[in-house]
Specification:
about 30% helix; about 290 residues; alpha+beta
């Protein structure tokens, strides 16, 4: 198993100031967000609406010689890929980038890890996330959940970001909290996330180690997966199916042709034609999230 020690000499990455400004511009933010709850929500909503959860760069890596680290573990690489091609990443690079950006902007940000509870998937630091502390309150700022509003974590108290399709909520449990969210392609089965403070403090090396572990363990190695959260909808593309979740919680499933899939990835998910041309075919019979 890959351990934190394997990456202990990897320096903590810092985003170049010019890169931060380019990212803010593409996010549609004309000025740096204020270092308060309004500013944090503004930044998080822009990130939620513009940067997908996907495995596009990872699938391309698997079709390569695999002599380099998994893509996007360095947030500078992650954001340059997004600026050029519109790609995001799975939870480790995606939330690694979220941490790097909030930290670079001056927020009191911290990485955390925990377990998303999925049947048949090993627990124990299988998901990386981000907390930002404001006025003594910790807020969950998770780019995978893309809830548009940050979630306050108040000890012993339940909380929620709202009642819409992007809503996530925190339920107090003995070990702290369980965060409840629903994927855009399945509104009946939640994906609970339980933070695991026993891993604290969480640094860049642990994120890289757990990301590296996914080379041989995970749902996102063998087939395309991409999800975009828009203010009034959620769009998901998987191995065979495409899902559109409307604001009224109506879920529509289609099975696009290869040509329709490519067109959607470019026009709806906003990926570059160049990166789509590099995307390898899905692995026949490979592992993929159930139902996709």
């Amino acid at each position: 198993m890959t351990t934190r020690a394997a990456f202990s000499e990897t320096p903590e990455p810092a985003l170049a100031p010019a890169l931060v400004e380019r990212v803010l511009t593409k996010l549609g933010l004309r000025q740096r967000p204020a270092l308060d709850l309004v500013g944090l929500n503004t930044l998080y909503a822009a990130f939620s609406a513009n940067i997908p959860f996907d495995n596009v760069q990872k699938r391309i890596w698997f079709a390569s010689s695999q002599t380099t680290p998994l893509p996007g573990g360095d947030p500078n690489e992650f954001f340059n890929n997004w600026l050029q091609h519109g790609t995001g990443g799975t939870c480790w690079p995606l939330n690694g980038a979220m941490y790097a950006l909030t930290h670079a902007l001056g927020f009191d940000a911290h990485r955390i890890v925990g377990s998303v509870i999925v049947e048949g998937y090993p627990r124990g630091a299988n998901h990386g996330s981000v907390l930002v502390t404001l006025d003594g309150i910790s807020y969950l700022v998770d780019a995978w959940m893309a809830s548009f509003k940050v979630l306050p974590l108040l000890p012993g108290k339940p909380s929620s970001t709202g009642r819409g399709i992007h809503d996530i909520r925190a339920v107090p449990i003995d070990s702290g909290f369980e965060i409840i969210s629903y994927p855009g392609f399945d509104r009946e089965h939640p994906l609970p996330f339980r933070p695991e403070p026993e891993y604290d403090p969480v640094d860049h090396s642990l994120f890289l180690a757990r990301y590296d572990r996914t080379k041989t363990l995970g749902f996102f190695n063998d087939a395309i997966f991409i999800c975009r959260h828009f203010p009034n909808s959620i769009l998901t593309m998987g191995r065979k199916s495409k899902f559109h979740l409307a604001a009224d919680n109506t879920l529509t499933k289609t099975e696009p042709t290869e040509a329709e899939r490519k067109k959607s990835l470019i026009e709806e998910f906003d990926l570059s034609e160049q990166i789509i041309e590099k995307l390898p075919p899905n692995v026949p019979g490979g592992v993929a999230p159930p139902g996709l």
